[in-house]
Amino acid sequence: MFELLGVPPQALFGQLLLGLINGAFYAMLSLGLAVIFGMLNVINFAHGAQYMMGAFTAWMLLNFLGVNYWAALILAPLLVGLFGILLERLFLRHLYHLDHLYGLLLTFGLALIIEGVFRKFYGSSGQPYSIPEELTGGHNLGFMFLPNYRAWVVAFSLVVCLAVWYLIERTKLGSYLRAATENPTLVQAFGINVPRMVMLTYGFGVGLAALAGVMAAPIYQVSPLMGANLIIVVFAVVVIGGMGSILGSIVTGFGLGVVEGFTKVFYPEASNTVIFVIMAIVLVLRPAGLFGRAQ
After folding, report:
1. 135: which DSSP letter?
2. What distances in angstroms separate CA 289 from CA 31, 79, 282, one per listed residue?
3. CATH number reported for the structural domain that contains residue 255 in this entry
4. CA-based angle 72:78:79, to the nearest 5?
5. Closest CA to 92 of 231, 234, 237, 205
6. Domain enclosing residue 197, as ranges
7. Dist CA 241 CA 288 (whole Å)
8. Looking at the domain assignment, is residue 270 inside a domain?
9. CA dihedral 249, 23, 149, 124 (to 10 degrees)
10. Could you read off the pLDDT of 33-72 as tens digits, one per residue?
11. For 175-214, how does the pLDDT look when each residue is reduced to its tens digit (9 = 90+)?
């Protein structure tokens, strides 16, 4: 079948793997954006900078403290999540009852400040971060070579995404979160500290971005601009899936990553724009997104 398409199977499956890897990062980042928007009604344009902070935190933990990749998977999201909580307490809490544009402008400014600080100290060139020894090498599947670390990224990100979906959609805590978005006054009347829940939710969404950054560090070089190069695509993924939709973020993240990968095989010139073309079509046919609900 592949010969009929004029594409070697190694190239096709190689791009499928690359699409799944990109899709894993799209899904995790858009998932964090969906959690934050669904709970806080804030379009967090600083998400790309926080993804970059996760990668840099892992790099600094390794180079300055000798903390390995596995510990960084836990520590970096916690540290960057605490930074996110600080931002929420200082700035974002004052914008919840205002138009979305104010949150977008504030987080855009925060992203520029964060990226500027890291560029000041580390420049624009990338910093290498080695693959953990346990995940080096790969397996020859006959039709392609599968690197162990890339297989780990796809599998672990899928587990994380499904766990977050289950937490929000199938647990009592998730029901409190969803109820607080609809009627925070009523939820607070039941003795639930809604402001604290909002604060922790933002920290959790930021921690998801940082976790994606740690996982991306061994694949891409750790650079102050790594988030800026990705966040526009991730926003397109969120719009296609539906703003605030958890399931939409996961499905469209992985799906659009695969579409982008296959586009590089059959029509490479369109690979950088295919997601935005799909976004335009979806906005025309279904403005709320594929999984979003019309207001």
Report:
1. G
2. 15, 33, 6
3. 1.10.3470
4. 85
5. 205
6. 11-101+125-285
7. 8
8. yes
9. -100
10. 988 887 788 889 999 999 999 999 999 999 999 999 999 9
11. 888 777 777 777 888 788 888 888 999 999 999 999 999 9
